[in-house]
Amino acid sequence: MLMFLVLLIFGQNGLISTVYTNYKEDLGNGFDLEHFQTFDKIVEELKELANENTTDNKVFEKSLISLGETFEGREIYAFKFIRKNDNENKRKTMVIECGAHAREWVSVSTCVYIITRIARSSNTANTVSKYDWVLIPVLNPDGYVYTWKNSTTRMWRKNRSFTEEQMKIYLEQKDDVCIGVDINRNFDSNWGGPGAPKTPCFTMYAGPKPFSENESKALVNFLTDNKDEVIAYISLHTFGQKWMTPFGHSKEKPTNLNEMERVALLSVEAIKKVSGLVYTVGSSHDIMYPNSGSSVDWASKTLSIPYTYLVEMVPKNATLEVGFMAEPELMMENCKTIWIGLQAMASHLKNDS
Ligand SMILES: [Zn+2]
């Protein structure tokens, strides 16, 4: 029987909020969702989830696929929930991507939580079963594994690839930051523009050319192959509590900005209602900082995916160390509230085709 636990949580702005959760009842199954996990453990759990017989089997067909291989030879996995008995022509997909930036562990945990939630919840809500869901839990496996190496690598952001030129600079300067590319600056949308340096020894290095990286290529190929079905693409990051629309490079806005904003406001309203957490809505250029070559800008501009969002999750304000090394309690609250926000989004999208 489903039991709901009621947790009282003191939100960051001092409000007392109530989060209803049943995750202890019907999720977990031996995998500790309440703590950060290594890449290997996550992959093991994803395989288990894809293969096990769960109550969602009536609604979805589950599969774990690889979108490509990284520089160091790891798989870039995507977990697919494809609705059974659906009209192929009307199929629409929500794509959620996590872990583009290695140190943002809360992002990875959030995707794993949502996958578990859809796979093992005993009653799949209508808003969830309206769409196919594809979640990419660790877009940057090499970087993520590197952040687990030791305390000096914990704040790594990029992937771990390098060109001959980069290796030469690295050997000259003996500086680790000269290795790797920022995956979320590597897309062909104002590539190398504001906030995306073209020289390697920066943590936001855009790469030697657009789509030079296996991770960005893998995502681009997947989104391009499925562009007519993808209704929304959401890139989850930490931190700052911002729910952002395109674009990052300038004040330019997508033609469907009003509709994207309408849905964003409903998503953040749902989060505030349940947790007291306040998210700001606006373009990443206007409310964060100028950035170029991001996946959501590219997906909006080049593929015309109707809804694309870059979400910076909890906490709202913190030093870099505190912000990227959120405590497990904050991580769990984030997982639950983001899932609520995404379900609110799913229930308010306009599905024209
Ligand atoms: Zn990020």
From TrEMBL:
<feature type="domain" description="Peptidase M14">
    <location>
        <begin position="35"/>
        <end position="349"/>
    </location>
</feature>
<keyword id="KW-0479">Metal-binding</keyword>
<dbReference type="InterPro" id="IPR000834">
    <property type="entry name" value="Peptidase_M14"/>
</dbReference>
<dbReference type="GO" id="GO:0004181">
    <property type="term" value="F:metallocarboxypeptidase activity"/>
</dbReference>
<dbReference type="GO" id="GO:0006508">
    <property type="term" value="P:proteolysis"/>
</dbReference>
<keyword id="KW-0732">Signal</keyword>
<dbReference type="InterPro" id="IPR057246">
    <property type="entry name" value="CARBOXYPEPT_ZN_1"/>
</dbReference>
<feature type="active site" description="Proton donor/acceptor">
    <location>
        <position position="312"/>
    </location>
</feature>
<keyword id="KW-0862">Zinc</keyword>
<dbReference type="Pfam" id="PF00246">
    <property type="entry name" value="Peptidase_M14"/>
</dbReference>
<keyword id="KW-0378">Hydrolase</keyword>
<feature type="signal peptide">
    <location>
        <begin position="1"/>
        <end position="18"/>
    </location>
</feature>
<keyword id="KW-0121">Carboxypeptidase</keyword>
<keyword id="KW-0482">Metalloprotease</keyword>
<keyword id="KW-0645">Protease</keyword>
<protein>
    <recommendedName>
        <fullName>Peptidase M14 domain-containing protein</fullName>
    </recommendedName>
</protein>
<dbReference type="GO" id="GO:0005615">
    <property type="term" value="C:extracellular space"/>
</dbReference>
<dbReference type="GO" id="GO:0008270">
    <property type="term" value="F:zinc ion binding"/>
</dbReference>
<comment type="similarity">
    <text>Belongs to the peptidase M14 family.</text>
</comment>
